[in-house]
# Entry
Amino acid sequence: MRFAVDGMLGKLARWLRIAGHDTIYARDLKVEPDKEDETLLQLVARQRRVLLTADKNLYTRALGFGFKTVLITKKDVVDQLLEISKALGRRVKLDFEKSRCPVCNGTLIQVDLSEVSEDLRKKNKDFWKCSSCGKVYWEGKHWRSIIKTAERYEREVGKSLPRRR
# Structure
């Protein structure tokens, strides 16, 4: 799924990117704060993205235009993913093989070890580089936390969505 996320949901935007979803975050649009909602709505219309927002007014406006939109009311990322799943009637797929840059939404490409500092090579063997911003990523200690969150979501979504036959 492709998402557009309002400025109040930065953690969710980063998480969706890590989980492999093309996710535009309002704060990345580089527009004045008072123009953010309008710019986001135009982007949703043009690119047919699902709008995720914690702003009731933006949610109502988006519904008025007929856009797929989800009002996010929870703070915990698993609860937010569950809200999205329930609203859309299907689970949010977590595909870490397709992770995107959590900073800029660029695609990640595996890089040769020669492109990474020796210190990092001592502790890790796989590295990915953002095709847009150039930031390098690896599965560090934080990766365990990401996997635990993903496992928790998968357990919970199984309880909350009806099984398809």
Summary: The CA atoms of residues 84 and 152 lie 15 Å apart.
